Amino acid sequence: xxxxxxxxxxxxxxxxxxxxxxxxxxxxxxxxxxxxxxxxxxxxxxxxxxxxxxxxxxxxxxxxxxxxxxxxxxxxxxxxxxxxxxxxxxxxxxxxxxxxxxxxxxxxxxxxxxxxxxxxxxxxxxxxxxxxxxxxxxxxxxxxxxxxxxxxxxxxxxxxxxxxxxxxxxxxxxxxxxxxxxxxxxxxxxxxxxxxxxxxxxxxxxxxxxxxxxxxxxxxxxxxxxxxx
Length: 229
Description:
229 residues; alpha+beta; seven-stranded antiparallel β-sheet; four-stranded antiparallel β-sheet; 34% strand; globular; disordered N terminus
């Protein structure tokens, strides 16, 4: 009887020891699962640092590209000489391009170039909006100089009694293939009409000016720089 009791006690003790070992192994396994692994993160950090170094090395090249674009887009300047109220003046003009038409020109400060309607632009004095030059251009392959001249003559005849401009007054257009101009004088104002052919373009100008500003010569000098874009 005592022998059986001893055997039963031994079995129970063995079961408790086995259960304890199993529990320790389970907890140890769970702890390993829950413990964060630092190895992948540590391996990825050098790659991130390398990427940062690469980006910093690329930055100067990007800046150089932006600098090149800025230099390319810089507008050209040209000195323009003109007379205003009998006084000789010289100013720097900047290249300006028509939004709707196929031409560009040198524009003096104090003027604004903007579309008036399809095929017509207005170069307006910032000081007085009643002083302006209307610009109409057409490709020489789509029209003729004679047609443009007839149209200009008809317009000037409707304005008043036109007088032809002298070759001296049209001297700015010395490089034009053809040129002709007229003026209608009023008391303190005048209307000037010019048509010329140059650089594959036929251009009609209508200038409204007054004695107070006297910007006709300045506007004609700007118009003489009109060329294809």
